[in-house]
Design brief:
Length: 369
């Protein structure tokens, strides 16, 4: 019996030793230090469910390290759940407030805090004799035009915007192959990122006890959720076909955004989305386009962007609103990190294009146009 007990102890010790060594190694050599899902949630973009959009940022204030994919830049989420500094409600007397809606290309993922293109617009306007200009970055990665509609309707109007601007097509064209209506296709955001939230009391206890478990857990969920900066990569073959119903929905979303902005007393502004994607893009540029985040071949993706531009221009003409054309930036490799996300030079170039157009609005005076 004693011999059998010793054998079991040896087996147990042999199994436990690598785990203890691994735990010791992680705690001693990891450059990230002690982490848990709770700690990770405080330093990462965390999303919460929303009735009027796909999801929202968890409110801050908190500073976020964007990670190596975005050059380890810092972002700040303020107390109201928007990127950038805090802003007041009611709006300060004399302020000229601009709300910039869109997805990650509006959030401007690759730029450090204070250098995203909406904030650069603010500085541009202030440097051009408009010191009361205030620009709020309302971009949320993954959001489409219909999200901007819901957010402006459900909250943005409380901020008393003088201008409500929408910039984005990439997230909308991800469903340009779908004939389903939004009502039937979209589902509530209920799957809280398990990398940032505990999955029960037992999981919480293990995370608090073992840093090795935390690292293995994180790798497991990375693999299960799929890699990529915009979520799970598609596995279905790329298609050549755009569905007319999806184009109609994009048009309806833009028109609704314009109407809601006007009802809120703001001047609506629509922008075409600048992109690296062009029909003449060289292979070096195509290598930066992650096709797995959307359903189309390169040729069809170019067509989808062209259709989106056409719809933006059509709605702007129909509704008689300011249109800002960012197409002069299209295809300039030095301005883009990937398909739509900007480099420092790209962010500055876009801010100058938009800033010049907004100067005209300021010159014309505040009010519903």
């Amino acid at each position: 019996m004693n011999g059998l007990r010793r054998q079991w102890l040896l087996v147990f010790g042999a199994a436990l030793a690598p785990l203890l060594l691994g735990e010791f190694g992680v705690r001693l050599f990891s450059k990230y230090g002690v982490v848990t899902p709770e700690i990770l949630r405080q330093i990462n973009l965390a999303y919460v469910p929303s009735v009027f959009s796909s999801y929202e940022f968890e409110r801050g204030p908190k500073e976020i390290n964007a990670g190596p994919d975005w050059g380890n830049v810092k972002w700040r989420i303020n107390a109201r759940g928007y990127r950038g500094p805090d802003f007041s409600i009611p709006k300060p007397p004399g302020a000229f407030r601009i709300l910039c809606y869109g997805g990650s290309s509006t959030f401007d993922m690759g730029q450090p805090e204070g250098k995203d293109w909406p904030r650069r617009i603010e500085r541009f306007l202030q440097e051009h004799r408009h010191p009361a200009a205030e620009v709020i970055n309302a971009g949320v990665p993954g959001h489409a035009a219909y999200d901007a509609v819901g957010r402006l309707f459900a909250e943005g109007h409380y901020f008393e915007p003088d201008v409500a601007l929408f910039y984005g097509a990439w997230n909308d064209l991800k469903r340009f192959d779908s004939g389903e209506s939004l009502l039937r296709e979209l589902r509530p955001y209920a799957d809280m990122d398990p990398r940032l939230y505990y999955q029960g009391s037992f999981d919480r206890s293990l995370c608090e006890i073992s840093q090795l478990y935390v690292r293995l857990r994180h790798r497991y969920y990375n693999a299960r959720l799929g890699t990529g900066l915009e979520g799970r990569l598609r596995t279905a073959p790329l298609t050549e076909t755009l569905h007319p119903a999806a184009l109609v929905q994009y048009r309806a979303s833009l028109a609704a955004f314009v109407d809601i902005a006007r009802n809120a007393g703001a001047t609506p502004v629509l922008m075409t989305e600048a992109r690296l994607v062009t029909s003449h893009a060289p292979e070096s540029a195509r290598g930066r386009i992650v096709y797995g985040f959307q359903p189309f071949t390169h040729a069809a993706l170019c067509q989808a962007f062209e259709k989106a531009d056409e719809i933006v221009r059509e709605v702007a003409a129909w509704k008689q609103v300011v249109l800002i054309d960012a197409s002069p930036l299209n295809g300039q490799a030095a301005l883009f990190k990937d398909h739509v996300h900007l480099t420092d030079a790209g962010s500055q170039a876009l801010a100058e294009i938009a800033g010049e157009a907004l100067l005209n609005i300021l010159a014309a005076g505040k009010g519903n146009q």
